[in-house]
Amino acid sequence: MATEAVQVWAARRNGACMLRVAGELDVATTANALIERATESVRAVPGPVLIDLSALTFIDAHGARALDALIRTPLDGRTAVVRNCPLRIRRLLNVFRVPLDYSSAEDLPAGQTATTALADQVRRARLHARESRLDASGTMARLTDTLIRLASTRERTDLIREQAQRTLADSRAVREQLIYSRRGTAPAPAALPQYALAAEFSAEDARP
Fold first, then answer.
1. Do 68 and 61 contact (CB within 8 A), yes or no?
2. Quick one: how far is CA 160 from the chain centroid?
3. Beta bridge partners of 22
4. Given the DSSP bridges, would you call strands 56-59 and 16-25 parallel, antiparallel or unpaired?
5. I need a surface site. Which of 59, 124, 189, 193 has the fewest CB within 10 A?
6. Mean pLDDT value across the chain
7. Is 155 in a helix, a strand, or coil?
8. Cβ(185)–Cβ(166) under 8 Å?
9. CB-based contact 21:56 (threshold 8 Å)
């Protein structure tokens, strides 16, 4: 294949040919190379071809076009259908306008009618909707946690600022007290810091 970032192999599973595409589908992946490798892989495995993308870690617009060509092209004379795709990859494919299922009424397995096929599509749509709701719930939970952390940080910041203002006021009061002491005059009571006033009152209370 043209790139070593993508691995393609096929295995028999439940009477079907499971074609696994793993790694990264990017600009280095050409549609012809991907189709050629996939065709070689499924040739030795009988059954309907199901594409498994669960191990696909990355895909860009070029890789999406290659995957689109792979799904549209019959592999060894068989139509391929995507049956397993991570939510993050599905979202990217939706952005690139690459549908994941090209099956039609003519491609239905034996014993499956259009009604059962529609029911299967509805079931998959509900599954995708549930996954989207769970993902949205997780995002909202993370956002709420972030807001709580920001509020807590703001409260701590306000407390630190208030403490700093008190410390600055006490420092000014002590400096004024030192200035008055050097001049030999008594400072005004209002200029004393809170802890100094408390010490003075305690000394007066201790007197007989």
1. no
2. 34
3. 7
4. parallel
5. 189
6. 76
7. helix
8. no
9. yes
